[in-house]
């Protein structure tokens, strides 16, 4: 049933709206990438190296982050090296080659950082309570897609092993972080948490035990 009033219709329209948003964001990304003579993937790599220089500094990590194959990301990084924006240096084990931005790369990253300003500007006109509910809803959708393997890498609260769902009565602050040992307001849910550990991580990869 695809009538405009039923549940199926609502889901269809939500999916359509998200798809439309995705188209818009891809167009925005392409526009700013073109300004700097980059591809959208090269732009994402530059921004990731600027924002997470300690954790996403290997080709494999970048490939996983953006859901592309390692050879595809390797080509993008090689192009960035040729453009003088990225350099490689040996890791502490002497074997791994870690990526970092050059001074020119850091300057380009600064210019790219406002690529999604039109989106954040549009969001700014919406009441905070609505934005917080939307964030919560989107993170639940991402967790669902993560469970089914559609989204591979996330660093969101809703896919984190420290996330305690619905542990508090306050509807504006229902969840809990067992690592930080504090309630999580809807408006404070994280999308890119440096402390995130996957809820489905194998025991050997787990570094901490949830408290609280
Ligand atoms: S560790 Fe970070 S991602 Fe995990 S629940 Fe706490 S705040 Fe959220």
Written account of the structure:
With 212 residues, this protein is mainly α. The chain has 2 domains: 7-116, Arc Repressor Mutant, subunit A (Orthogonal Bundle), CATH 1.10.10.10; 126-205, no CATH class. Helix content is 47%, strand content 8%. The chain has 7 helices and 5 strands. The strands form 2 sheets. It has a 3-stranded antiparallel beta sheet with strand order 3-4-5, with no helix packed on it. The chain has a two-stranded antiparallel sheet with strand order 1-2. Strand 4 (175-177) and strand 5 form a beta hairpin. The longest helix is centred in the first third of the chain and has 29 residues, at 7-35. The termini are far apart. Residues 157, 160, 162-163, 177, 179-180, 190, 193, 195-196 line the site of iron/sulfur cluster.
| CATH uppermost class of the largest domain | Mainly Alpha
What is the residue-averaged pLDDT? 88
Strands of the largest sheet, in order across it? 3-4-5
Largest sheet: 3 strands, antiparallel
Oligomer: single chain
The CATH architecture of the largest domain can be named as Orthogonal Bundle
| Proportion of residues in β-strands | 5-15%
Number of domains: 2
Which bin fits the share of residues in helices?
Answer: 40-55%
Describe the global form: globular
Bound molecules: iron/sulfur cluster
């Amino acid at each position: 049933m695809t009538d405009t009033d039923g549940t199926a219709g609502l889901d269809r329209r939500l999916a359509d709206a998200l798809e439309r948003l995705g188209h818009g964001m891809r167009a925005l990304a392409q526009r700013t990438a073109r300004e700097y003579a980059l591809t959208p993937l090269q732009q994402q790599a530059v921004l990731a190296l600027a924002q997470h220089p300690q954790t996403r500094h290997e080709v494999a990590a970048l490939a996983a982050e953006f859901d592309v194959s390692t050879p595809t990301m390797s080509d993008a990084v090689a192009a960035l090296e040729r453009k003088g924006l990225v350099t490689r240096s040996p890791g502490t084990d002497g074997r791994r080659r870690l990526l970092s931005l050059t001074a020119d790369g850091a300057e380009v990253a600064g210019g790219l950082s406002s690529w999604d300003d039109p989106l954040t500007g549009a969001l700014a006109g919406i009441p905070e309570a609505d934005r917080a509910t939307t964030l919560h809803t989107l993170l639940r959708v991402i967790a669902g897609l993560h469970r089914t393997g559609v989204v591979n890498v996330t660093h969101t609260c809703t896919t984190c092993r420290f996330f305690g769902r619905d542990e508090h009565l306050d509807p504006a602050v229902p969840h809990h972080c067992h690592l930080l040992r504090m309630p999580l307001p809807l408006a404070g849910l994280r999308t890119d948490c440096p402390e995130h550990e996957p809820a489905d991580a194998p025991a050997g990869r787990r570094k901490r035990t949830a408290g609280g």
